[in-house]
Write a structure and sequence with these properties.
Helices cover 39% and strands 29% of the residues. It is α+β, with helices and mostly antiparallel strands.
């Protein structure tokens, strides 16, 4: 009887270990899939890549973008993935100040840090442009000049071909 109880307890212990391990594995896969689903491809956006940067730089003044008081030199960069804001997908364009750090990387290369000074979002369908207030995190709609910019680009292309 003692041998039977010892074997039964050993089997129950092993079963509990396998159940606990399988639950841990399930948690890891759930986290991976939620991270993967957060990546939004920008293929379907009407305006993307360098066109989105050019649009923000050329369609709005520094004052409209809130960059008129930035004293350091800044540059525009575009996010590789789209962003969802209020169930709508956007392309993110950021204005950043790049500064050289005093430290170097482990391989001896110079390192830099980026300080955001402006964030702008263009909806995938091109009908809405938002500016993020970096202090409050709130979004403000900007005048949509996408059509005007498109026409301006066509005019510029026509005049440069002559």
């Amino acid at each position: 009887m003692k041998k039977f109880l010892a074997v039964l307890l050993a089997v129950i212990t092993v079963a509990c270990v396998f159940v606990a391990c399988s639950k841990a594995d399930n948690k890891d896969t759930t986290n991976e899939s939620s991270t993967t689903s957060a990546v939004i491809a920008t293929d379907k956006a009407k305006i993307k890549d360098s066109d989105a940067i050019d649009f923000i730089k050329n369609a709005y003044t520094k004052k409209e973008l809130g960059l008129d008081k930035v004293k350091e030199k800044y540059s525009f960069m575009i996010s590789e993935n789209g962003v969802t804001i209020d169930k709508k997908q956007y392309i993110k364009v950021a204005a950043n100040v790049m500064k050289k750090n005093d430290t170097t990387s482990k391989d001896g290369k110079q390192t830099y840090s980026l300080t955001p000074v402006g964030e702008y979002y263009i909806s995938f369908n091109g009908d809405e442009v938002l500016m993020k207030d970096l202090k409050t995190g709130e979004y403000k709609k900007l005048d949509n000049r996408y059509q005007d910019y498109s026409a301006k680009g066509q005019t510029n292309n026509a005049s440069t071909k002559k």
